[in-house]
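Whiteboard transcription, Tuesday session. T.W. wrote the structure tokens on the left side:
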């Protein structure tokens, strides 16, 4: 029997509530399959931990996490702890420290999901975001602080290695899926980093003549995400642009309550991390109002990562069936169910399918 060792970092706000439902569903799937099981270890790290210790995680936290196959993260952030601390001292520390250089964000309009567009298009794209450097490299300087001549420098870092590997990964995904690949950059204004990005995209593309490609400036791409999202299938873009565009995509496909993300180390030299990306929502924490479907979608991504694609697809189909049924949904989806009730219903529907 395969054993998948999962580090749980429920984190802050609604994080523990949605992660509990994800664990419940994953355990039920393992029970129904019988060929694998999960071992979960919970870590108390996050903003509450920071308020008590002055640190977002243990000093040897990365060493502890390195022993696991994957990390399941709830949410990071809470009032009283500056966002740059909660982000850089936990989430980005893990992404960078474990070389999770691929961020996968599915932008797919499931049946039953709300869409703000007048006519519901067939939105089905995978955004592959560079996840280790670029605009989030943390390079720069703060000169003459608190003086009239104060200057702040924020430097984007685009290495040949970092740029080429994410672009090559995207070409491989497009080839395997038989889909088009679109690169999104801003080469007309960012005359070093994005011109380099465009150049590498073209260079790597010569090795994939079978993949149909397109390139857009990020401002034009933002417009087409709304006006004609069906033109995008596989998308590859930089850290910052990917961060922004995928939230726009989430708004078109049901909101952040349905937005899942995977931070992947493709070589599996380190654990990869799976998370709903809706944030900690402290205003509704503890009220059982949080939508767990994004956490369940990220659990589906985890199943895919472990080679359990059939179960990953079944879980995603069950999420879709739940929304089409439109009976057990949280308030953000105009329902009256609690977080736990949604998780219970997903388990019940999964079980019924197997039977």
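and on the right, the sequence the group agreed on:
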């Amino acid at each position: 029997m395969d054993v998948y060792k999962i580090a749980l970092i429920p984190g802050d706000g609604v994080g523990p509530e949605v992660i509990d439902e994800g664990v419940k569903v994953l355990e039920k799937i393992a029970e129904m399959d019988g060929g694998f099981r999960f071992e979960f270890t919970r870590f108390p790290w996050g903003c509450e931990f920071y308020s008590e210790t002055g640190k977002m995680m243990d000093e040897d936290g990365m060493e502890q996490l390195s022993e696991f196959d994957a990390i399941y993260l709830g949410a990071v952030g809470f009032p009283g702890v500056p966002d740059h601390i909660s982000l850089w001292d936990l989430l980005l520390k893990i992404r960078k420290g474990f070389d999770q250089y691929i961020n996968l964000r599915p932008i797919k309009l499931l049946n039953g999901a709300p869409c703000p567009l007048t006519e519901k298009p067939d939105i089905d794209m995978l955004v592959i975001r560079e996840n280790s450097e670029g605009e989030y490299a943390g390079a720069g300087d703060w000169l003459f602080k608190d003086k009239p001549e104060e200057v702040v420098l924020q430097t984007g870092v685009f290495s040949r290695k970092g740029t080429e590997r994410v672009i090559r990964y995207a070409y491989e995904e497009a080839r395997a899926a038989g889909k088009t690949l679109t690169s999104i950059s801003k080469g007309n204004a960012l005359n070093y980093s994005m011109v380099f990005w465009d150049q590498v995209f073209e260079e790597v593309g010569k090795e994939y003549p079978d993949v149909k490609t397109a390139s857009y400036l990020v401002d034009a791409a933002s417009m087409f995400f709304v006006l004609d999202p069906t033109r995008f299938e596989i998308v590859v873009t930089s850290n910052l642009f990917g961060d922004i565009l995928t939230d726009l995509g989430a708004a078109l496909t049901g909101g952040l309550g349905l937005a899942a993300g995977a931070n992947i180390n493709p070589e599996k030299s380190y654990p990869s991390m799976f998370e709903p990306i809706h944030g900690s929502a402290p205003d509704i924490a503890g009220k059982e109002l949080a939508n767990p479907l994004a956490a369940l979608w990220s659990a589906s991504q985890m199943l895919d990562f472990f080679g359990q694609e059939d179960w990953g697809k079944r879980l995603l189909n069950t999420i879709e069936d739940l929304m089409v049924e439109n009976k057990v949904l949280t308030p953000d989806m105009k329902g009256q169910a609690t977080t736990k009730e949604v998780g219970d219903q997903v388990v019940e529907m999964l079980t019924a399918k197997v039977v």
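Someone added at the bottom: The chain has a mean pLDDT of 96.
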